[in-house]
Amino acid sequence: MAHSYHHAVSSARKWVGKPEDYQAIHDHIDGSKEIIADFRHRAPRHHAEGCGMAQRLFGQAISNSAGRLVPVRLIAEQHVIEDLGWIPSFADWVKCITPLAWMGRVAWRPDAPANITQAQERSNA
Ligand SMILES: [Zn+2]
Fold it and tell me: Helix, strand, or coil here: 62?
């Protein structure tokens, strides 16, 4: 499934109501397309914690236009399963990141307070 509108149509089929009842949730999950346009956009929100994030943002449940309460987590999980076939954890995504040197670089700054203290302790010893 490619577009958040189609996820919303699918939600309306599953829980009745109208696609617009669900559109904001699916727009949020696919909002990472603004960062990168290919499938890698899914890494920030298409996982278990991303479903939890949707629940925190939209509440435990929405009331659709048919008057039914639908749990937001189930709507988010429907989206992720339609895109990926399962609900990975964020750790599953991280395992696919190839570590590069710049990702772990911590610049040593001689003027940082902790380093000044350590240098003074060494000179006093
Ligand atoms: Zn998606």
Answer: strand
| Assessment of whether the complete model's pTM goes beyond 0.90 | no
Dist. CA 46–CA 18, nearest whole Å: 23
Region for 123 from its dihedrals, namely left if φ exceeds 0, alpha if ψ lies in -120 to 50, beta otherwise: alpha
Question: What would the two tokens of residue 14 be?
Answer: 């599953």
Distance CA 101, CA 104 (A): 6
pLDDT in tens, 92-105: 999 999 999 888 87
Element (H, E) at 71: strand 69-71
**Centroid of ligand 1 to alpha carbon of 66 (angstroms):** 25
Helices (H), ranges, 16-112: 23-29, 48-58, 72-84, 90-94, 101-104
Q: Ligand 1 centre and the CA of 33: distance in Å?
A: 9
